[in-house]
What we know:
Blueprint: E1 16-19, E2 22-25, H1 34-39, H2 47-69, E3 75-79, H3 89-103, E4 107-110, H4 116-126, E5 131-136, E6 150-154, H5 157-166, E7 170-173, H6 178-192, E8 201-204, H7 206-221, E9 234-237, H8 240-282
Parallel strand pairs: 3-4, 3-7, 4-5, 5-6, 7-8, 8-9
Antiparallel strand pairs: 1-2
Helix pairs in contact: 3-4, 3-8
Amino acid sequence: MSESNGRAPEGEPQRERHRGPVTLRRTAMTDSTADQRLLDSRQRDDWKTRDAWRALRILSEFVEGFDTLSDLPPAVSVFGSARSRPDSPECRLAEALGGELARAGYAVITGGGPGVMEAANRGASEAGGLSVGLGIELPFEQGINEWVDLAIDFRYFFARKTMFVKYAQAFVVLPGGFGTMDELFEALTLVQTGKVTRFPVVLMGTRYWGGLIDWLRDTMSAEGKIGPVDLDLICLTDDVNEAVRHIVEAEAVLSAEQEAVREEAVARTAADQRVAADEGGRD
């Protein structure tokens, strides 16, 4: 990059960073992120002023996310590494998965970046489904991949993570790094603790995830840190059709359970009304 004007040499892609609705290029780019500035405990002097204003910015991200995504069809959030090459096994798997989810009637939500995320978005888009990308401001440029139909750029990880959970009927997790692990265990914790309505979590890539599953079973569960039933929260497979079938069947079971609860509530209300009517008649 030229030192005089910050422009990329001719023929090279222009570097840019997305900070919420703001796009930064060249000398306007900074080295820090909104999350970093929010969580930096060393800058205590301005907490009472700046953090109060940040609260409004955080609120605006939730409002924007809720307003934009509220009309989504049933959706599945797909996670995986941004570093995976397009010809890698996990990217081929993600592309096939995106296509099958679209054909099953689901929108596909990813982090909107390259690698596995781009592959899943591409599969969904080419199959005629809705392809969603929830981007995040990072110290290194990433941007929204070209296969995303509907994109939102977030400043704050926690606002973005809420959208991944709130608008998904399931999570599918392909090979990835720390960010992928973070999303995986966030989902498992929310389901285990009952903070969200039960939904399926699918791990795709038995060779990649097999060691983790062994450790969860042989160490974490064996030592009583989780219950044996908690392992049932995870479906491990290499088969795209099995993954989609697991999601569809889980949704059907949950819908049937919710319908049974509604019918029971209606029957209870009707019974209470009959009792009240009988008591009123005796009076």
